[in-house]
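1st attempt posting a full record on here, be nice pls
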Amino acid sequence: MAKQGKRMKSARASVDATKAYALDEAVKAIKANASVKFDETVEIAMNLGIDPRHADQQVRGVVQLPHGTGKEVRVAVFAKAEKADEARAAGADIVGAEDLAEKIQAGEMNFDRCIATPDMMAIVGRLGKVLGPRGLMPNPRLGTVTPDVATAVKAAKGGEVQFRAEKAGVIHAGVGKASFDEAQLNDNLSAFINAISRAKPSGVKGTYIKKVSVSSTMGPSVQIDIASVSSGG
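the predicted structure (as tokens):
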């Protein structure tokens, strides 16, 4: 434990908390301070100048990370007949209808993403109190209520990340692993930051993106200079 504290202390000392680093410098610092004991998740936190209580200041959406998240995503799909077959063929981990709803009601939720065909929403709608608080409720705006379940499953498995601003206007997400090379982390971070930029709500006045910081699970937080992020179109 003392060793752990010592490591964290030296990691913190190597990062200037008052400085906003260029993206590539920030990534170098994150990788340099990551533990060798396990593959830490690289996480981003973005402080936005919004008040999510207002309907015209909501920030929510999805972004496909070019190199995925490095995390295995378990996908559940509500579908019947050939749509259920399509979901299985695309790699869905759990596929069902009323039977799946019963399992979820009973507390069985060993999945990270939930997708549904539109005709299943009458069943899925009853699970709002269970799925909603966990951020698992299928939503047409996020592409998780769709007749094209195969594409949705492949996107979820291939590194698609959902984002949503919390009450304080902060967005958190995992954007890769410390074992990724610097170019991969740069690409993923740029893609995520640009997606949030494009999701700027109409009701925002003043500075939209106030602060961006990145860290690994056990490492210190490093602030990113937003001007150093290349806009990916």
